[in-house]
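Possible regression after last week's pipeline update?

I re-ran a chain I had predicted before the update to compare outputs. Posting the input and the new output here so someone can diff against the archived version. Not blocking, just want to make sure nothing changed silently.
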Amino acid sequence: MAEKIFTSAELYEAWPVLSLEERVEGFEFLKRDDADDFFLQLNARDRAELLLALPPGERRLWMRLLAPDDAADVIQEAPAEERESMLSLLDDQTRREVKGLLDYAEDEAGGLMNTRYSRLRADMTVDTEDRVFNAISATAFLMVRNAGVQGVQIDVVELYMKTTTNGAAGRFQMTRADAEALNSKTMSQQDYFVRKVIY
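New output (post-update):
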């Protein structure tokens, strides 16, 4: 394989029958832009295998190319003993987000047998500023009331908002203290948005 430079299309077609060594070799032959697109085409398991086969110095670059939910999927596919080192490749903000997603996935896998929900994720579509503030208010309202479920306490809600065209409208990590301040009106939704928005 070293005698031929594969195009990304050729490499993708051959991928299922290549050995791990051949996959790495083919991947490293790709031009950078092609390699970016190719890497993002792979499923989480193939990304994890490829990352762990790359030299340690290259892993950070490829991990940081991934969106937080994709990075969480890749880490879940990695052997347990490699997960912390893969998580450490991310920047601080993304690492916190990915850790939250991994914690959430563990809760889901365990069937949420524990009656204390330490962390939940909420995805919302909003198309006006008023709806952003309404979503913040509604999340706080439900949090302090533990969504009306007996024997449950919600400590953190990861709130992801997007526009109707799939653009980001804001991401928040609402703590119980935030929810109580919003619900008691000691903090306005507008003030919360300005102080607490992550992106």
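Follow-up from reviewer: compared with the archived run. The mean pLDDT is 82. Marking as no regression found.
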